[in-house]
């Protein structure tokens, strides 16, 4: 259990030290998978740009979300689901994301633009697929 339940809050989770360990390990797993067949896996991509409605975990499991006043979960959106991961969030994609960032539809492509909030220039997924590229410039040893 994470103190303060920061990991279930998308705005607070980057402030939790375990966040960096978790995401660094995911990056390492990604590289391990990619390096098994790098030329092919630098171009393998797909999936939806917007998340699908939460269907329960595991699929078909009838889970009752905690009430919105549960002190162990952040408040939800007023739906009574509380802030449990996957519940209590608006299911409608934000209009800012429905132009699909150069994909031409709801399927992610290598042309998908990664918006960086003016921290740096926006890049495409193709620009960051290779961690050894000049843009990412990372190496696992």
TrEMBL record:
Positions of transmembrane segments: none
GO MF assignments: oxidoreductase activity
InterPro entries: Di-copper_centre_dom_sf, Tyrosinase_Cu-bd
Positions of the Tyrosinase copper-binding domain: 16-27
Domain of life: Eukaryota
Name of the protein described by the UniProt record: Tyrosinase copper-binding domain-containing protein
Species the sequence originates in: Diatrype stigma
Lineage, broadest ranks: Eukaryota, Fungi, Dikarya, Ascomycota, Pezizomycotina
């Amino acid at each position: 259990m994470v103190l303060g339940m920061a990991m279930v809050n998308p705005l607070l989770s980057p402030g939790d030290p375990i966040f960096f360990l978790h995401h660094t390990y995911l990056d390492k797993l990604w590289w391990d998978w990619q390096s098994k067949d790098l030329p092919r896996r630098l171009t393998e991509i797909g999936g939806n740009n917007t998340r699908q409605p939460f269907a329960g975990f595991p699929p078909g499991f009838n889970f009752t979300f905690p009430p919105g006043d549960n002190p162990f979960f952040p408040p939800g959106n007023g739906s009574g689901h509380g802030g449990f991961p996957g519940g209590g969030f608006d299911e409608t994609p934000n209009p800012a994301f429905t132009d699909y960032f150069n994909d031409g539809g709801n399927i992610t492509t290598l042309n998908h633009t990664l918006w960086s909030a003016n921290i740096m220039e926006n890049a495409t997924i193709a620009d960051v697929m290779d961690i050894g590229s000049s843009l990412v410039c990372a190496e696992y040893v």
